[in-house]
Specification:
The protein has one domain (2-168). 30% of the residues lie in helices and 39% in strands. The chain has one helix at 2-53, and strands at residues 55-60, 73-78, 80-85, 91-97, 102-107, 110-113, 120-130, 142-152, 158-168. The strands form 2 sheets. A 5-stranded antiparallel sheet has the order 1-3-4-5-6, with helices on one face. The radius of gyration is 24 Å and the shape is elongated. 22% of the residues are buried.
């Protein structure tokens, strides 16, 4: 009888320890996934911010013509932005591909994508543009970028993320 009680207690303690170990492994996987996502999304945001800081003539929504004029969309934002690069005078477009859920970058007419990795699904890319347009306006153009998505990790782990950054044109307007 005493042997059965001690074996029962041992099995209970062993089960609790195994549950704790499996929980720790799951947390580790989720942490690793978030680390990869953080690196990939930060790299994409850095590319977007760097080009916006060095850009001019910001136009939100690449589908609204003429894209050569500055255009604000500071309330609801849009999923694309077009502007002119200051260093080589090329047109840069960022937009969300809703089929592949990736951030796309076009330089003039050459299409490409920003690498966010296979574990990242971008659900929303939103640009709010404060273009500082208007005759005599001295408002410095700025862009608020929001990215919302999901990171798919090993096993059943997935994590949602929502990041935002603001970039201001470096070259003064006045």
């Amino acid at each position: 009888m005493e042997l059965m009680v001690s074996v029962g207690i041992f099995i209970f303690v062993l089960s609790a320890a195994m549950g704790a170990l499996l929980s720790i492994v799951n947390v580790y996987r989720k942490t690793q996934t978030l680390h990869v996502v953080s690196d990939n999304v930060n790299l994409a945001l850095e590319d977007i911010s760097k080009n916006i800081i060095q850009g001019t003539n910001f136009h939100c929504d690449a589908m609204v013509a003429p894209i050569t004029d500055a255009r604000s969309c500071n309330v609801s934002g849009t999923s694309s932005i077009v502007f002119v690069s200051n260093d080589n005078n090329k047109k840069i477009t960022y937009w969300l591909d809703t089929v592949s859920h990736e951030i796309m970058k076009d330089v003039d007419t050459v299409a490409g994508k920003l690498t966010t990795g296979s574990v990242v699904t971008i659900e929303e890319l939103r640009f709010r543009v404060f273009a500082g347009e208007g005759v005599g306006s001295k408002d410095q153009p700025r862009v608020i970028v929001n990215i919302r998505g999901t990171a798919i990790g090993a096993g059943d782990t997935s994590s949602s993320f929502d990041v935002q950054t603001t970039a201001v044109q470096r070259t003064p307007k006045y």
